[in-house]
Design a protein that fits this description.
This protein is of the alpha/beta class and 86 residues long. The chain is built from 2 helices and 4 strands; from the N terminus they run H-E-E-H-E-E.
Length: 86
Amino acid sequence: MLDENFLKKLSNLHGLKLLKLHPHIKNVKQVNLYGFTQVLSSIPAEILITQVAYEFKNVKVYHHGSTVFRYIAFKNVGFINIESEV
């Protein structure tokens, strides 16, 4: 499920904001993305985050309990579990 309220909460962040849904999420109603750019859900998160880490000095990954943080070890990438934020 897409948490539109959380997107709205993060909409004030500066910089590029990417939204990558879990690959199993197929039917998402049209929602306001609040300035986020949606990327293909078929792209593995590890590949996307690695590429973004090489392109930007500071990367924050907001996630719903993903285990991807276990496989990514870049000093410029931080992971924030929004399950504990909401």
